[in-house]
Amino acid sequence: METEPIVAQLLQAAFPEANSMDPVAFYDGVGDLFQAVAFSFLFWPKFITFHDAVFIALNGDDERFIINRLTDRNGKMISRSRESSWQEAVDSFNWVEVAHLFIHWRGPQEYHVDAEDFLGEVLCQAWSAKLKKNFPERDFSVFLDEPEDSSTSLTINIKQVSPVLEDPPSWNRKLGIFE
To answer: Which pLDDT score, from 0 to 100, does residue 162 have?
Structure first.
């Protein structure tokens, strides 16, 4: 699918003052240098490692949050009735709902789904490239999942494919935490 005309239509509807149908012409008219610096971390994100697993860091102070959730005996990591592997625990952190990346929304509403789809595709490509650059000895799958129902939105998932994540010695599958 040719995305440039669709993106131009989305951007023109959201920013009619830009007066262009070329998507490349929009960033200088609707953004600024500091917005670009902030968004650079969305398109080329930080990844952290913990117990040889890779986690995407998009929220700020992610490392402390992840370590606290994985080591806190009072707040079980995964509240399921079955045991959870280290891979499942890691995967539970490495997904992002595209719509929830932003708290500020602009109109027009009828283009939100198309904008989410386009941004999701671009982020999958960028995050895959960053993972390949930072972790050349590993293989990852970065993919989009369609919403299961109206309570969720388009989701980007990151899964380490190889080497397969093995449970670290101190991982408690029953509690879903490190002991």
So the answer is: 97
